[in-house]
Structures are given as structure tokens and as C-alpha cells.
Amino acid sequence: MTYSYLFKYIIIGDTGVGKSCLLLQFTDKRFQPVHDLTIGVEFGARMVNIDGKQIKLQIWDTAGQESFRSITRSYYRGAAGALLVYDITRRETFNHLTSWLEDARQHSSSNMVIMLIGNKSDLESRRDVKREEGEAFAREHGLIFMETSAKTACNVEEAFINTAKEIYRKIQQGLFDVHNEANGIKIGPQQSISTSAGPGACQRNIRDTGSDSGCC
Amino acid sequence: MVPALFFFRGISLRVHQRAGRWDDGRQEPKSAFRAVGEMGSSGLAGCSVVPACAPEGPGWLQRHLLSGEFDQLRNFTIFESNFVQVTRFGEVANKVTMGVAASSPALELPDLLLLAGPTKEDGCPQLLGLFPLQFVQLFIHDESRQQLKVKFCTGRAFYLQLRAPAETRALEFSKWVRLLYRLRFHGQGAVPFTQEEWGDEDWDEETDLEDQERDWRDQLQAREARLDPQTSELWGL
Ligand SMILES: Nc1nc2c(ncn2[C@@H]2O[C@H](COP(=O)(O)OP(=O)(O)OP(=O)(O)O)[C@@H](O)[C@H]2O)c(=O)[nH]1
Ligand SMILES: [Mg+2]
Fold first, then answer.
1. End-to-end CA distance of chain A
2. Is the distance from CB of B81 to CB of B164 less than 8 angstroms?
3. Which InterPro entries does this chain map to (chain B) (predicted)?
């Protein structure tokens, strides 16, 4: 299938926060109640449409468990987007965000767009991290923020798509060199930069990347 | 709890009850796949791939990685074969390509396991997962049917039956057998092993992981050697 761009994403965060479930919900619209620990990297791909352009998201779902982390870290390289996930019902997963962020920034391009995700928003009664705390962390570190539920699918589409919109916006602003593979962006087959969006192209559909649709 | 039949979240196991039992190892099962396209050249209309079972030249997985969507994995040399996932009792499910690769040319043995399969939509190749071999065990499940068992340290396990032309199948399977001996017994005497000798409980304790990781690191250091790339390319298989 043809596409204008391919964006590499990584999904990172503590074990059990729901990274694989977010991916599965996004690619297959299914929820997996059992926790099958990821031991390396699992891949997913999906086309999305941003501003009339077909964009292929190539998603690297990495293992969160400490024993596997040293290995999966090496695959952060060349990601254009990262979903940094914590579990709103487990404060320790929120407390570890700084270390994940350091890791991500150290092993990938400085332009990488990072979306902070507070997952399991369906478990409101067990909430351990306030939404405002997530927002504050995101603001402080220059991240986009959303709360999601991989179980009910709430905001899952938005999380992946808003990240893509932000990357696309950066491309249009000339902040991403699409010819430098280290940036995690590829121009699709049979596309050349003159036929794909360049600076100044229409930005109609790109807005509100930080807000969510309010279902959570 | 790990379900008895299990592969990947992304590609759920599809067992077709009416698919014939595999009582004749020389015959390909018929019409076993509805949702999954044929992996051979015939079923992959629009995808420029060749079956990985071609004895020489890059296989399906290698070509997929060479296609350029996976920068970091592009330069891996891969030993790969086409399989079908079967149940413990031999019923046919998904098509899978499994390969091993070395993340560095300095390694004497591969350290990564790669799994790929055709997408549901168009049957084009899709990389499903990349797993450090230190967390995976490979077993011979049924030698006569050329079946391997792949077991993750988390307890997940699945069975794969080799798909290759009848003329080359035995040879190709013997390469996998050699590989799994070498992975298991590298640096030790070649002790014959069967699945029974490996308790299924081996890896069920999460607390073992760190020990295993340490063990593996030690082994890795012992393994690392600057080898002539010509000879190390396919690990002498
Ligand atoms: N209620 C609820 N449960 C969820 C949600 N997302 C994930 N889970 C559950 O949380 C557990 C862990 O989910 P996974 O997606 O496997 O976790 P992971 O982050 O991939 O973990 P690792 O692979 O070990 O890094 C599973 O039991 C899921 O069913 C959610 O949004 N709501
Ligand atoms: Mg996972």
C-alpha cells in the first residue's frame, strides 16, 4: 500500500501499564485481558490519514520489564514519536516516568514527539494518580498528554493520531529533516518531497493536539 | 494463565477445524487458511516476494527487512524458514516465517529471533516480533513432522511445522536442529537433548530472569569473537 510518510513510533513505560493493549486496540480494535509480558519488541502497523495524506505508523511495542529493558533500549533509535505510558492506578509507574524519559531522550532524536499517556482511565475507582499530575508532568517536560483506556478504547485512536499530527506539523515547519533516517520518518514509495507536504502546505486539520475528546 | 493455544496478540491463532490432520508429512494441508493469504508467490499478488524456502538467496523475511522500512534491521543476516503454526496435536493455524539473526557481526551465534507473517488485509509480509534468543528456547517437537517448539521465558509457547519443498525439507530442518544444538550447547559437549530433559517449569519463575540474564552475559562474553564474516555469516549451518 502506498503512503506519503512512514513514522516510526516506540511505546515505552513500566511493565503492566498496558502498552501492548494500547497497540492491539489501535491496530485490531481488541482488548486482551491477560498480561502477556513482552520480552523484546512486538510490531504493529496501521495507516492513518492526516490532512489528506496517508501515513503509515510503524509501531515498536517494547518490553517494560527491567530484565529486558537494557536490550530494547537500543531500538529507540530513529523513532519519530514515542508513547510514554503509565498506569493511573499505580503511582510507582508514574514515579518512574523521569527515568523512562531520560532513556528515551538519550537514545533517540531530540525532535522526537513524546505523548504522555495515563492509561486505564476506565478504573476510576482505583485511581492513584490525578489527571492534573499527569498534565503538570507533561507541561514541565514539553510532552503532549492524554488519559486513555485500552479496555474501552477511549482516546486510543486520538493518542496515536495526535502524535502523528504533531510530527506532521513539525515536518511542515521544517523542524524534521525527512531525508535523515535517524529522525524516524521515511518518505513513502513513489513519493518525492515536491509532491508531499512541505513547509507552508495546508494545515487545516492540524490543531488541538493536546486536547482529548472528553470520553475519559 | 497462558492459554494452551497461543501465538501473538496481533495475529490470533486461527485453527480451522476442517483442515485435514497432518498425517502425511509430505503433503501440504489444503485450504487451511481463510484469513491468512498464501505466503508463496501465488498468493501474494502485488507483493514482490519470493518464498523463503528458496535454498539460496534472501528469504521472505530478509527481503522484507531489505525493503527499507526497518533501517535498524536492514543489515541483519538472517537464517529463516517458512512454517505453519500448528497446535500441539498438529492442527494447522497461521503461516509464520521464523528467522534468527545476529545483532552484531562480531557474534559467533545469532542472538535474535524474528517472527513475521502475512498481514490479514493483503498477505504482504509483516514483521511481528523481535526477541532476544536468551529469553527463548527452541525444541524439536516432532522430528518426523519437522515440528519445532518455541518457548518464551514467560511461559508462552507455540509449535511450528516447517514448510518447504519435499526435496529440501529434510535438509532445511536439519539446519534448524543444528542451530538449536549450537544455541543450547555452545562451548559444551554436544549432549543429545529432548524436550523432556527441559522441565517446562524451567522459566516459570520471574525471579529467574535476572540470573539468566547474568548467565547469558557471561556466555556472550565468551562467545564474542572477531570472526571472518564469510564463515560466520550463517553460523556454519
Ligand atoms: N482495566 C484496564 N486494564 C488494562 C488496560 N490496559 C491494559 N490493561 C491490563 O493490564 C495488563 C497489562 O497490559 P499489557 O498491555 O500486557 O502491559 P504492557 O505494558 O505491555 O507490559 P509489558 O509487556 O510487560 O511491558 C493486562 O492484564 C491488561 O489486560 C486498560 O486500559 N484498562
Ligand atoms: Mg507488552
1. 34
2. yes
3. GARIL-like_Rab2B-bd
Instruction: From the CA of A150, give the closest atom in ligand 1.
Output: 31
> First and final CA of chain B: distance in angstroms?
37
Q: How many CB atoms lie within 10 A of CB B104?
A: 8
Q: Which residues of chain B have pLDDT under 70?
A: 1-57, 186-236
DSSP one-letter string for A84-97: EEEETT-HHHHHTH
Q: Does domain B60-186 have CATH number 2.30.29.30?
A: yes
Q: Average model confidence (pLDDT) for chain A?
A: 88
Closest residue by Cα to residue B124 from B95, B144, B160: B95
Cα B156 from Cα A84, distance rounded (Å): 26
- Residue with the smallest CA separation from ligand 1 atom 23 is A38
Distance CA B127, CA B72 (A): 13
Q: Which residues of B touch A23 (CB under 8 A)?
A: 9-10
| The three three-digit cell numbers of residue B60, written as one number | 521472505
Tell whether ligand 1 has an atom less than 6 A from the beta carbon of residue A17.
yes
C-alpha cell at B89: 496435536
Whole-angstrom distance, CA of residue A157 vs CA of residue A46: 11
Whole-number pLDDT of residue A194: 45
Each residue's pLDDT tens digit, A8-63? 999 999 999 999 999 999 999 999 998 989 999 999 999 999 999 999 999 999 99
Helices A19-28, A156-172: crossing angle, 10 deg rounding: 80
Question: Please, are residues B118 and B124 in contact by the beta-carbon 8 Å criterion?
Answer: yes
Q: How many CB atoms lie within 10 A of CB B210?
A: 11
Measured CA to CA in angstroms, residue A196 lies from A186, A190, B44 at distances of 12, 10, 28
- pLDDT tens readout for residues A104-121: 999 888 889 999 999 999
Domains of chain A: 5-187 (3.40.50.300)
Sort A132 into a burial class: Cβ within 10 Å, 0-12 / 13-18 / 19+: exposed
φ and ψ at B127, to 5 degrees?
Answer: -75, 130
Amino acid at B101: A
Query: Which amino acid is residue B216, in one-letter code?
Result: W
Query: B74, B130, B136, B151: which to substitute to probe chain A, counting the most A Cβ within 10 Å?
Result: B130
Phi, psi of B216 (to 5 degrees): -65, -40
Instruction: Kindly report, residue by residue over A48-61, the tens digit of the pLDDT.
Output: 999 999 999 999 99
Contact by Cβ (8 Å): B51, B40? yes
Query: Which mutation among A20, A22, A123 tests ligand 1's pocket best, with the greatest number of atoms within 8 A of CB?
Result: A20
